[in-house]
Amino acid sequence: VLDSQYGLYVWPCAVVLAQYVWAHRRSLPGKRVLEIGAGVSLPGVVAARCGARVILSDSEELPQCLQSCRSSCLLNRLPHVPVLGLTWGRVSPELLSLPPIDIILGSDVFFEPKDFEDILTTIYFLLEKNPHAQFWTTYQVRSADWSIEALLCKWNLRSIHVPLHSFGADKEHLASSSMPGRHTIEMMIISLAQSEGT
């Protein structure tokens, strides 16, 4: 039985995003990485172990998830990785005082459609402050009805689909789940639309 706080479970999306981080490990030393909605923090922990300067974050309203981030750091001998409470769609002193960022990570943050705009508002804010940065995100296709395309357009963001086979994450043992049903994982990179002159 899953905990009501989603961040206390390693979802297949986290494994796939961690695989993408690992595939790009040679470019990570010294990069500044923020993981949002980190939960158990698998992608962020992998980035930190690969030499990135990582900050983990989850909702300030979910203390168990923030503690899960801290526990993951301690278990992986990363006691100095900061953990911040950042709530999507909310401008807070923690959000305003973030240092420059190169990469934002988010695995399965597009879970509840009611949160999609808050997530993209936060991503837009971070990318405006860091125009060269990218948001690497994986998500599970749960419904054919939802799409973030209109919100991407509204917030002047663009996305590039990243095929799982391009980084060896199309294997069943990576993108599968012990939960019932079919689990289709997708990955995309979101950036400012104007950063490419579009």
TrEMBL record:
One of its GO terms (biological process) is methylation. Gene3D superfamilies: Vaccinia Virus protein VP39. The keyword Thylakoid does not apply. It comes from the Eukaryota. GO terms for cellular component: cytoplasm; nucleus. It is found in: Cytoplasm; Nucleus. Keywords: Chromatin regulator, Cytoplasm, Developmental protein, Methyltransferase, Nucleus, S-adenosyl-L-methionine, Transferase. GO terms for molecular function: protein-arginine omega-N asymmetric methyltransferase activity. Coiled coil: none annotated. It catalyses: L-arginyl-[protein] + 2 S-adenosyl-L-methionine = N(omega),N(omega)-dimethyl-L-arginyl-[protein] + 2 S-adenosyl-L-homocysteine + 2 H(+). Histone methyltransferase that dimethylates histone H3 at 'Arg-17', forming asymmetric dimethylarginine (H3R17me2a), leading to activate transcription via chromatin remodeling. Maternal factor involved in epigenetic chromatin reprogramming of the paternal genome in the zygote: mediates H3R17me2a, promoting histone H3.3 incorporation in the male pronucleus, leading to TET3 recruitment and subsequent DNA demethylation. Belongs to the methyltransferase superfamily. METTL23 family. This is Histone-arginine methyltransferase METTL23. It comes from Bombycilla garrulus.
